[in-house]
Amino acid sequence: MRFAHRHLLGIEHLSQSDITAILDLAEKYVDMNRQSTKHSDVLSGLTQINMFFENSTRTQASFELAGKRLGADVMNMAMQASSIKKGETLIDTAMTLNAMHPDLLVVRHPHSGAVDLLAQKVNCAVLNAGDGKHEHPTQALLDALTIRRAKGRLHRLNIAICGDVAHSRVARSNLILLGKMENRIRLIGPPTLVPSQFAEFGAGVYDDMNEGLKDVDVVMMLRLQKERMDGGFIPSEREYYHRYGLDAAKLAQAKPDAIVMHPGPMNRGVEIDGTLADDINRSVIQEQVEMGVAVRMAAMELLARNLREAA
């Protein structure tokens, strides 16, 4: 199982075989994580530092759990209270980290490109846990694993990505990954949240939910990212839910066995009906959380192998 990359910064530079290698290894970790003993020593002796410049619950907890289950020494740096607040630059932070000799660095940052800049300045493997509106590669990979397990394949599916595409790094990473795997993608939302340039990814763009969801296999809802909005992107949350929130009536346009996804955290009654989100026959939202730990374990193992080979 070959993965010829030093870092995992985005989906853009991954091949189909790279994606498949991560997903196939993650399948083994799904099985391991369901056992009473959930521990491996593949990262034994290695140090993992988690640096989250943005608040995160799911992703940070998932990376921390993944590292510990693989036997790494895991340290979380509280970046909100760090030297960055005192004026230290990202380059200074990189120099400080280098002096600590970490092996794996997991970074979330509010600015697009910041994680890539850090990766150029440190001597360890870097995993992008989300940078601005750019990419969130492990989220796209865990979504891909969830789809593959639910549908039995990850190609030639009709997949709708709905909501705040404009501000979503999750949407961008999924667009790239699902496109590489030969799926047909539709983007659904108001024109303010689905800019026309996203059609360049080869996706169909719809501003009518019922039309966009016609006969799709997968419905991927997105969170309204109010923290990244600096204007009137939607008239009101009530109106948004009426037109673009997923409920049973709109889902009826999709295939009868279509699955419902959401990267979380969910705004129930805004992006998705709460009853639908909890419907075990349609929703795979909890499976996405489970797949997240396995995918991050797989990504870190593959990067660690390269570190050891290069040593």
Per-chain topology:
Blueprint (H helix, E strand, L loop, with lengths): L15 H18 L13 E6 L5 H12 L3 E5 L12 H11 L3 E6 L4 H8 L3 E7 L5 H15 L6 E5 L6 H12 L3 E5 L15 E3 L2 H4 L5 E4 L15 H8 L3 H4 L7 E3 L12 H4 L7 H26 L1
Helix pairs in contact: 1-5, 1-11, 2-11, 3-4, 5-6, 5-11
Give structural notes:
With 311 residues, the chain is of the alpha/beta class. 39% of the residues lie in helices and 14% in strands. It is built from 11 helices and 9 strands. It has helices at residues 16-33, 58-69, 90-100, 114-121, 137-151, 169-180, 209-212, 237-244, 248-251, 274-277, 285-310, and strands at 47-52, 73-77, 104-109, 125-131, 158-162, 184-188, 204-206, 218-221, 259-261. The strands form 2 sheets. It has a 5-stranded parallel beta sheet. The model has no long low-confidence stretch (mean pLDDT 92).
